Amino acid sequence: MRRYGWVIRLRPDHRETYLRLHAAVWPGVEQTLRAARIRNYSIFLHGDLLFGYYEYVGDDHDADQRRIAADPQTRAWWRLTDPCQESLAEPGSGHWWAPMHEVWHLTEEAW
Questions:
Q1: Tell me, what DSSP letter sits at residue 23?
Q2: Backbone φ and ψ of 79, nearest 5°
Q3: Are 56 and 68 in contact (CB under 8 A)?
Q4: Which string of DSSP letters, residue by residue, matches 51-103?
């Protein structure tokens, strides 16, 4: 299992739309994420920053990301959510959400 963290800016004028959409994420979008071996996906809000975290349990993250991107329902979802966001990713990186680098992780205590 590998952990991923991502960050993006939430456009203040789209805040309510974004929060309303995420109060009822489409089941098909959630199913596509699960089929792509994404687990424990959470999005947190701090001011105008969105922080996304998930755990990946597969063997080919890039291929599973392409699988998500190819899903018609997910693409329709993104057409609604992308205008709510302002990317912080490095231009030309191919990312919409900027990847974050893990600097520390607390593991379970050994007994």
A1: T
A2: -65, -25
A3: no
A4: EEEEEE-SS-HHHHHHHHHH-HHHHHHHHHHGGGEE--SPTTSS-SSEEE---
Question: For tokens 């992308």, what's the residue?
Answer: 82
Q: Which two tokens stand for residue 96?
A: 């919409």
Burial class (CB in 10 A: 0-12, 13-18, 19+), 90: exposed
> Which residue is listed with tokens 């329902």?
73
The single-letter code of the amino acid at 106 is L
User: What is the token pair recorded at 98?
Assistant: 């900027």
Q: 57 is written with which tokens?
A: 């349990």
pLDDT digits (tens, 9 = 90+) for 39-71: 999 999 999 999 999 999 999 999 999 999 999
Can you give the pTM of this predicted structure? 0.89
Direct distance between the N- and C-terminal alpha carbons of the chain, in angstroms, rounded to an integer? 22
| H or E element that contains 19 | helix 15-22
